[in-house]
Amino acid sequence: MVFRILILSFKFIAMVSAFDDFDQCKDGWPIQPSCSRLIGFGIYTALAVLNLIVACMPRGISYHRVGNLPISFFTAVISKLLLIAVSISFIFYSFYVHQYSHTLMAFASARVVFWIINLSSFIKWRDLPYLPASLAITYSLAVCFDLIPMFAWNEYFTSRTFKNGEFVFYSMDLILTLVVFVSTMCLSTLRSESSSTWSNFSRKISLILPYVWPKKSITLQLRVALCLFLLLFGRLINVALPLYSKWIVDGLAHPETFQYSLIYISTLLKFLQGNGAMGGFLNTLRSYLWIPIQQYTTRELEVELFAHLHSLSLRWHLSRKTGLVLRVMDRGTSSVNSILNYILFNIVPTITDIIIAVVFFFSTFNFYFGGIVLVTMVLYLVVTIYVTEWRTKFRRDMNEKENASSAIATDSLLNYETVKYYGNEMYEVDRFRHAIEWLLQLPVYFTLSGFQRKIAVYSFQLAEWRSNASLALLNFLQNGLIGLGMTAGSVLVAYLITVDQQLTVGDYVLFTTYILQLYAPLNFFGTVYRTIQKSFIDMENMFDLMNEEVDVRDSPNAVEYHPTEGKISVNNLIFAYNENRIVLNGISFEVGSGQSVALVGPSGSGKSTLIRLLFRLFECPEGSVSYDGMDVRHLKLRSLRKQIGIVPQDTVLFNDTIKYNIRFGRPSATDEEIYEAAKAAMIHDKIMSLPEGIRISGFKDSLQVHRKAITALLALAVMACNID
């Protein structure tokens, strides 16, 4: 605390000295050396060094930021080193001719000192190699706190604002620092988080881009290009509309020369722009054109993920809950569309509008207006990003609990009949209730009449309270920043109209219209950012599924299986589901062509496991399974399984028509073959007596009817062997 007070004191003294110095340079540069300027040089240099010490402390303001530094950081470092080299040359020249500015030398010297300390600190201090992002953010904050006031002093006390050396130095340094600050905030993460939703942002975007750009459809490609054009055209309208408002107001001051065409054009522009990001003709047209692209993205993602899930081994599926997998799949595909829509049509346009607005106010008005917009917007974005990143852990926790409760509910409903058999309805309801509540005993104590009591808190409710409370805090900070920026700008433009008379009433309308137009999408920026963050989390879960390794696949030299004798050989087969559960231990036998073999044993002895190994649903860790002398691992899976027919012990049928279930064994079977299979199973008349015949769907009829029909159809197909 004492150290921070000392820094603030130095800042105040340096500010007074700077006022005295700049007061003498109203008539332009260069200025002559004096005692006060030398004192100011020393004080502000000391201030800069103190800030550098704070920035380089291992436990700085953002100590908990970890992760690799973004590429922009190293780009900014190189640029700043070049800037410092130019500044040093300017310092030597200034001393040589006895003409200098103490603040410029102080900043240049401070940057040199900083990077000397910075480079050495990565070697000497143990924490910094693991917390580089913490150093980058803390340094950026220190630079911003110094540069922003100096901008104001430079603007007010000098007559050649955009030409003198200090302004150029401040501008370049501030821009580079903001790049480091924002990029590090977005691309690094908090120490308490296992991974940031924005980490590897470019990699995540590169994963979904192939699903956005329709390579095989020129029509869809033209739609994408047209949507981007409408987006760019909308940015131009956002600049033109406030200008027309200014011209209309200024024109009304001279009724005799007023041009009504300004109103017509302004109305047309407003029709095209609409009210915010969700209205207007351009946005409506863009949304209409984007619908087929969104459908293309969803279709490609869902099909690829569904195919990948079918390529995974049975071991993987047995270890996962189907309801949870389907939940992740649904969330993931919808999250990709959300990310694309919000980034392309909300985030990118908003950031572009901010940049255009800053440049517009810098060039049309003066530094103060551009500075107000820049500082307000940067602080708004930084606060939103920082607080939302902090809130991520609450969303992750709630996602995990929701997934768990959803999986329990799905599992319970899938086993509805079993629940009814045992009368365990209330047991399942209680299990679902506890999954939602997740009681947690927190070590919270208080004394009442000499006794200590432990308070039980619902962890879900606690996480929900934290999430809602942090959301309220974020909304308060966002509205406060917008209100301060709007107030500062409005007061300034009113002052310039009424006192200095540099601006007109139309300029006030221009400023307020532009700012309100700019702030409108920012009101939704927090919601958009949180939605994108949630979508990134959901997308991560989906890509985790897509990155699951396929442990049972065709070997590089696998061949098609064409049965000759139909002989099956099992040689010293050993299989275990885990280290503590060995199911098969050294099993060996042979089944000749046309032979019938029965596998007899108690439940859990490995009969079903052996059948799965014959289908190569599991890999054989030791031993081998051969067909006609060929190891099953050297045969293509699809060709092998097509030659094997099976009637499982537990009949699982699709919730579709009887016709679909009969044909499933051989999808290429014709309708005549399906009827023949039903007749061969002697169930044709029974099926045709049903209300819709073979087209009936559902499972109200006897399962044995379906089993016989499927068995008969499989008998018609060419099979290598029959296994029962």
TrEMBL record:
Lipid bilayer topology: Multi-pass membrane protein
A single GO molecular function term of this UniProt record: ATP hydrolysis activity
CDD domains documented for this protein: ABC_6TM_ABCB6
Transmembrane segments: 38-57, 69-96, 102-123, 130-152, 167-190, 222-241, 261-282, 339-362, 368-388, 476-497, 509-529
A Gene Ontology term for the protein's cellular component: vacuolar membrane
Signal peptide: 1-18
Principal subcellular localisation of the protein: membrane
InterPro entries in the cross-refs: ABC1_TM_dom, ABC1_TM_sf, ABC_transporter-like_ATP-bd, P-loop_NTPase, Type_1_exporter
Pfam annotation, one family: ABC_membrane
Gene3D superfamilies: ABC transporter type 1, transmembrane domain, P-loop containing nucleotide triphosphate hydrolases
Cell compartments where the protein resides: Membrane
UniProt keyword terms in alphabetical order: Membrane, Signal, Transmembrane, Transmembrane helix
Domain ABC transmembrane type-1: residue ranges: 225-534
Protein name as annotated: ABC transmembrane type-1 domain-containing protein
Native organism: Ancylostoma ceylanicum
Upper taxonomic lineage: Eukaryota, Metazoa, Ecdysozoa, Nematoda, Chromadorea
